């Protein structure tokens, strides 16, 4: 199921959400997913967990999905992800309980594992991310939709609809 517009929570149907996992990677599409999650959390009094997944450099190039900006230092990659999570956290409404989660590995696989381990009601993510592949229904979104054991909502829309 897709969220065509973060302001239209009726596309989330009658599903009452308590725990929402939101994939964030700094992209405009992730911001759209965040807007949809905030709307749903406000509606349902839900909690949000922001997850970002960085590459595990020890696993080799096959695991890399984010631009590394020339840095092949795991600490630098982890610090960059931490800064992104903190910046996103600062933009969250105070009324919504929010936690953050950082994992290393393949984004789709780690998002699905985190959703299962955390017993989330829903995963909300953007249609595309900032990975090496420009068309991420996109690979990450597609992977999560096909492998998650919980509801998955893919946010589509224009950048003007994102959370500020």
Automatic annotation (TrEMBL):
Q: Tell me which CDD domains the record gives.
A: USP-like
Say which species the protein is native to: Solirubrobacter phytolaccae
This protein is called what?
Answer: Universal stress protein
Q: Name one Pfam family in it.
A: Usp
Q: Which domain of life is it from?
A: Bacteria
| Record domain UspA: where | 18-155
Question: Which segments cross the bilayer?
Answer: none
Q: Which family does it belong to?
A: Belongs to the universal stress protein A family.
């Amino acid at each position: 199921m897709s969220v065509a517009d973060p302001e239209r929570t009726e596309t989330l149907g009658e599903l009452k959400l308590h725990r929402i996992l939101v994939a964030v990677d700094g992209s405009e599409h992730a911001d759209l997913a965040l807007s949809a999650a905030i709307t749903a959390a406000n509606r349902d009094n839900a909690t949000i967990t922001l997850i970002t997944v960085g590459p595990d450099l020890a696993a080799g190039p096959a695991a890399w999905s984010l631009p590394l900006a020339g840095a092949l230092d795991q600490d630098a990659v982890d610090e960059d992800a931490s800064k992104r999570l903190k910046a996103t956290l600062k933009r969250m409404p105070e009324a919504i309980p929010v936690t953050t989660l950082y994992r290393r590995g393949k984004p789709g696989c780690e998002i699905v594992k985190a959703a299962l381990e955390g017993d989330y009601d829903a995963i909300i993510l953007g249609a595309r991310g900032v990975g090496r592949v420009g068309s991420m229904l996109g690979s990450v979104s597609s992977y999560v939709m096909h492998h998650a054991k919980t509801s998955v909502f893919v946010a589509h829309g224009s950048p003007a609809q994102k959370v500020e």
